[in-house]
Design brief:
2 copies of one chain form a homodimer. Chain A has about 230 residues and is α/β, with parallel strands linked by helices. The first copy, chain A, has 6 helices and 12 strands.
Chain lengths: ~230, ~230
């Protein structure tokens, strides 16, 4: 029992004193006051990671897009709507963070212009011009005193290939890849299975509940973080 | 006490034997497997109307877009995602319905093509071509044995003007107009205030909780329905 207790204490302190910044959920990009573009994301994975990081002793800030989820105990939550809002909230906190996990499904594009009044139906066809949103995780990894920067790659094909490309292109320390075309995992599901990739290798985490997976990921990331930072 | 009881019994039977079909929530129009276009709608108003109609003795079918709400007791719920799904679910049940209330915030347009794989970011600008979705409520009101057909007009300007135009153009029996530009009502709010319009006149229902408002609307609609149908 003593051994179990000390192990539990050790585990609960994996992120003791660490400041962790996590994004979760989708973003919404307004077309007009009633219409928007968004991405599928329940926010469950990011909220589970926030809870796991808090359980591991970290001081956690969760920047959340519009989701219907309760805030995990002890976590500071900042609600945002658009990718630009999320970018601003994250970049204001990047310098003070030790670990950043970009788990949100950020909209890559937003309508070029937001119409102030509801657009009335007129034609059979309508053309929407979209422009690129700022790339939050690239901005984090390019920041001067960058945190250990972890991204997600939710893909529907060649998942590992895209994930490796994203890891290098965005100069991430690690990336968590999952295949959202597989039924029963990802998005609105309660389960997930992922592969954690770094420049040094990859590790598969088999299908399990999102909270259990979040606990396992935080443990892995804490080990990476501690092995990277000699302090 | 006897008077109260008989009044309660009378009120609870305003829609006795009636079959009511209600749509609620937004629809989602897929751009690709991860992106979609949608409309702001919590579904609260439609779910409250379904509950109120069931409480009034009706047999209620609720066709719901993606929302996070529990199904009211005694209500048959059909979950749909896209406007086309909703159209199909509604039109299959129109002929057997006495009252239809179109409360869903149906997307007017959907992407012309749905891309099977996640679209990769490439250019700084992207053009999305949208095409019109089928008009559910116009199809209901044009159907051969049409139910008493009630629409909603969620507008941000000239609310009454647009509502009257919609009432006539879509050949509705009644329309419920609300100004979604006013803070604290509509969309994700728990309160609402509306104006109920028919060809014969209009009645304002002041700001109140959505369930209370739903009860009041069902009472008004039941009176209209009973005065329209001599049976």
């Amino acid at each position: 029992e003593l051994a179990d207790l000390s192990e539990a204490q050790f585990e609960s302190r994996l992120l003791d004193g660490m400041r962790v910044l996590i994004t979760a959920g989708p973003t919404r990009e307004a077309i007009d006051p009633v219409r928007y573009i968004s991405n599928h994301s329940s926010g469950k994975m990011g909220f589970s990671l926030a809870r796991a990081a808090a359980d591991a002793g970290a001081s956690v800030t969760l920047v959340a897009g519009p989701v219907n989820l309760p805030t995990p105990a002890g976590v500071e939550r900042i609600d945002v709507v658009s990718a630009q809002d999320m970018y601003d909230a994250v970049l204001a906190r990047t310098a003070e963070s030790d670990l950043f996990i970009g788990c949100a499904a950020v909209a890559d594009y937003r309508p070029a212009t937001v119409v102030e009044q509801k657009i009335k139906k007129q034609n059979d066809e309508m053309t929407l011009t979209l422009v690129r949103n700022p790339d939050i995780i690239s901005a984090v990894s390019a920041s001067e005193s960058r945190p250990f920067t972890v991204g997600f790659a939710a893909e529907t094909q060649d998942v590992l290939g895209y994930a490796k490309g994203k890891l290098e292109r965005k100069k991430l320390d690690a990336i968590i890849a999952n295949d959202v075309s597989v039924a029963g995992i990802g998005f609105n599901s309660d389960q997930n299975e992922v592969i954690l990739l770094t420049a040094r290798g990859e590790q598969a985490l088999p299908r399990m509940g999102k909270q259990q997976l979040a606990d396992a990921l935080i443990e892995q990331l804490a080990q990476l973080l501690n092995s990277t930072d000699p302090a």
